[in-house]
Please model this.
Amino acid sequence: MSKIVIVTDSDASLPPPLAAEYNIRQVPITVHLNDEVFETGVDIDDIKLFEWIDREGKIPTTAAPSPGKFAEAFRAAFDQDGADAVVCLTVSGEISGTYDAARMAATQLVDDKSITVVDTKCLSLAQGFMAIAAAEAAQNGASVDEVVAAAMDLQDRVHLYGALSTLKYIAMGGRVSTLKAEMANLLSIKPILSLDNGKLDLLEQVRTRKKAWARMMELLELAAGGKEIERLGIVHVTALEQAKEFEGLLRQRMSCPEDVLIAEFTAGLSVHGGAGLIGVCAVTAR
Model:
């Protein structure tokens, strides 16, 4: 039986211990703080990121991993993990050049190896849950095509919603005016985001955190349509206690899996959402 190793990138929001449990290699998205370059999950996390942002008063830039970083991960999968083949599942190409970098590594930098690169059209735990589904299929002896199919089977039944705590950080990045952000914060407006065509875009705006959380739960119920939720995760940006509080409210409202994953959004994504973001991601049954 051939061994297939899954590679993804850190925008999958998978906690390192969980990724290690499934033998998933994560290639880090980079964050550029002035002249310094940090790797998500290696030498920067959400807390360190927003300490820097609040101190400097500006938003750093992020970048896809280089093809060389993917080549390193692919070679490690073959040389260290004993892989016969690699399936690489990247963050949506609509928001990042990560897919292109992985493709370049697979076709130009690593010779005579079976490497399949797939654009998940997803991000955060939507992408992460796809990577886990692929890893489970690989562990059960699936072929490369079957591993890819197992991941892509989630694409139309994974649902991701997020509620911003503030527009302060979006304003710092120039995507809305400072005045608009200040007015929104004054009125306690909480934008709700949803996964749409490979991007996390504004879905609607509600007032107060309580109403935003209630609306996210309502959207999740509507998306599930009465079907069982097979996987459930909550992501946050420097808001672990709020994430736990949201989990408690969610369990009161609807039937949840016994294990609910709580994870950092991770720096490559968090820089675009801002501190205090709470998101929920669910995979519903067919």
Observations:
- The chain is about 40% helix and 25% strand.
